[in-house]
Write the structure tokens for this entry.
Amino acid sequence: MKDTIILGIETSCDETSAAVVVNGRQVLSNVISSQVDLHAEYGGVVPEIASRKHVELILPVIDNALKEAGVSLEEVDAVAVTYGPGLVGALLVGVAAAKALAFSLNKPLIRVNHIEGHIAANYITHPDLEPPYVCLVASGGHSHIVHIASYTEFRVLGRTRDDAAGEAFDKIARVLGLGYPGGPAIERAAKAGNPEAFRFPRVKFADAPYDFSFSGLKTAVINMVHQLQQKGEPLPVEDICASFQQAVADVLVEHTIGAAKELKTDTICIAGGVAANSLLREYMSKKAREEHIRVLYPQLKLCTDNAAMIASAGYYALKNGCTADWRLNAVPSLRIGESG
Amino acid sequence: MVEKYLTGSEEETFNLGVQLARKLGPGTAVSLEGDLGAGKTALVKGIAKGLGVRDTITSPTFTIVNSYEGDVTLHHFDVYRIDDPEELYEIGWEEYFNPNDVCVVEWGDRVSQMLPPGALRIRILRDETQPDKRTILVERQDQE
């Protein structure tokens, strides 16, 4: 059978990325703007959230991705693009570029949900992975437990009711003065701390056992920090980080394993930026092993926003006959399972 | 004129939001100010309920803005990550502030020059000695 070459495009937030992926699994290139030295080319630092940045970067990034892959535009079989969720201005740049390319090449256009893309990152790292399985997708913007029944069927089993898991890390890091991004900073500080020093709340909902809430945990940590500061006592930063991180990991792991057991699946995947947290990965693996469930996660580069995962998800959408027409628009608050 | 409310729990802050929503007609913009963990999102959840939104309100910190359909459309912003107010033009800021929709902007004090005249200012203040108590000040900006 002939190989299917997909050009993936991702511009949902801060990163401009393009990738060339063969048959949904083999990455020929995966260019992310922050790794390309384009500042010099364009003269100076560009604002963090400007969609103008995407406009300036999108063509050079696509060019680099094709060049690195050694693939010409004519050899591309389809163009896959993130159309939500994300920032509307940012998404529109990728969507417009993908539409223009697909139209001019007379090739299929495929729309990809960003979160479903994160899940697909696991197909790249684990060639033997096939549905069904349960995936925890957690990042600065998302916290979901998803059942992947087939390559194109997604059902949300649990989601956050307030803050995303990664966001809680960022906000606690800010309160403790550890800087941004919060995930790696807290993980570093937590290494020297005692995870049982403080008992922070773990929230459960009776009506939705796999839903999350991290707002109460955030407030509990902040209240404790304020009280210590008022008394003029030194902050046990390491212990706070370790105890906070353990509270987040406990909830993520317990809910994900609960969902996997209910669905009788033998595989759990982790995806998104929080999958880069080594405590979470180790703790999930340890707890899952007790239930004879294996735990998979993508390699580090594929945990952050990237276009290879979009091309992978796009490949399976194409196989399933899901292509978009020229009316495709950005959907900033797109939900999982709505791509159809 | 400043209206002052006291709440003793997250639930009371939520309920105040439901109550305040009745005063937010189409076209209202709200600047919502308060420290991390003060209860800004809890108040917005209440406002959304009061506006007839059925979706779960989640934090917009990452995406800058989330939009919800209710009796009116609610745009919920978090501009904490905005360093330069001009960046808001890049996300289509002006499109959101129209006569039909309600906009609530968390950390609105960071971008005060970008808010439309007549925006409502809501400030949530902590009580340093009682961690669950909040003072909530509602103030209509001078219209000039």
Observations:
- Chain B is about 20% helix and 30% strand.
- The radius of gyration of chain B is 14 Å.
- The helical segments of chain B are 10-21, 40-50, 93-96.
- Chain B touches chain A through 30 residues (CB under 8 Å).
